[in-house]
Design goal:
- This protein is mainly α.
- Helix content is about 70%, strand content about 0%.
- The protein has one domain: Tetracycline Repressor, domain 2.
Length: about 190
């Protein structure tokens, strides 16, 4: 690959593929340079450090999942929209385990990720607000859904669930359980 064809997007796609094959923790710049068919020192023209690359992969993952959810929700509303948003996020985590690891672990960094996680948060927040739920309750609901989705996906990724029964079935059951809780908040009004 010539340097002329090398841009940040190509680097992130390649780094994401490598992280998905092994783990974000095993990703290294030498391996990435080799996969891009360039010398490791040349990679530093595009990547500041391994930590920065992992942070960029976190942002890249949040952007991708936000785009997928926004696209999947076209023409869908209510419970179906909440359920679909959760499914798309979970699917993304299953399909991209290394990038998902970056999303889960590197968003605690002190650097702001330029609003990438905010897009998903905004989508889910609007779904809650459309249900005539108080803003403070919508914030709590959003945090509960996010922690459930990300936590469940991490546990499934690390094989924490027994082999008997479908983890996906349990995930869907949990989403329905949370949606039922949202309905209870609507009834309070």
């Amino acid at each position: 690959m010539s340097r002329a064809n090398l841009d940040k997007r190509k680097i992130l796609e390649t780094a994401g593929a490598l992280a998905n094959e092994s783990s974000i923790k095993k990703l290294n710049l030498k391996q990435l340079a080799q996969k891009l068919n360039i010398q490791p020192p040349s990679l530093y023209n595009h990547v500041q450090s391994l930590d920065h690359l992992r942070f960029d992969l976190m942002v890249y993952g949040w952007e991708q999942v936000g785009e997928r959810i926004a696209e999947a929700l076209i023409g869908i509303s209510g419970d179906d929209a909440i359920r679909r948003a959760c499914e798309v996020f979970y699917d993304y985590a299953e399909e991209n385990p290394g990038i998902f690891e970056a999303m889960a672990y590197y968003n605690r960094d002190s650097k702001k990720p330029d609003g990438a996680p905010d897009r998903l948060t905004d989508i889910l927040f609007r779904l809650c607000r459309a249900r005539d739920i108080a803003e403070q309750d919508a914030v709590h609901i959003l945090r509960i859904f996010r922690s459930y989705i990300e936590g469940f996906a991490l546990l499934a990724h690390y094989g924490a669930f027994p082999r008997d029964g479908s983890a996906r079935e349990s995930f869907n059951f949990g989403v329905d359980f949370l949606i039922a809780g949202v309905h209870q908040l609507e009834e309070k009004k």
